[in-house]
Design a protein that fits this description.
This protein has 124 residues and is mainly alpha-helical. Helix content is 66%, strand content 10%. Strand 1 and strand 2 form a beta hairpin. It is elongated, with a radius of gyration of 18 Å.
Amino acid sequence: MTNVNLSDGEWKIMNQLWEHETATITELTAWLQETTGWDKHIIITMLNRMVKKGAVSFYEKGRAKQFYPLISQSEVSIRETKGFLNKVYRGSIGMMVNAMVEDKALSKQDIEELYKILEQAELK
């Protein structure tokens, strides 16, 4: 498993790349401008950092670089989730769910979804 740590901003770019599979700087800027306010120079800087980390790569397509992810969303998400769980809840899923229940942060739909997930886990 690749051990690439992503900043919050890098997650935003990766989510776009995972969704679209490839993207140019112009496309990323258009997709992220409204929600982040980033211009192309910020995105270029972040992409260069992500290339050095081994998170993304690119190929030349005409005059534009076409960026694509080198790491899968599921692999990074699982590692990040485990890290969060260990850091905040000492690795205890029970402590995390209990905190959500006590904070009344779970909707009826969330609880039903958790039941389905747990039922699937029992079958495996």
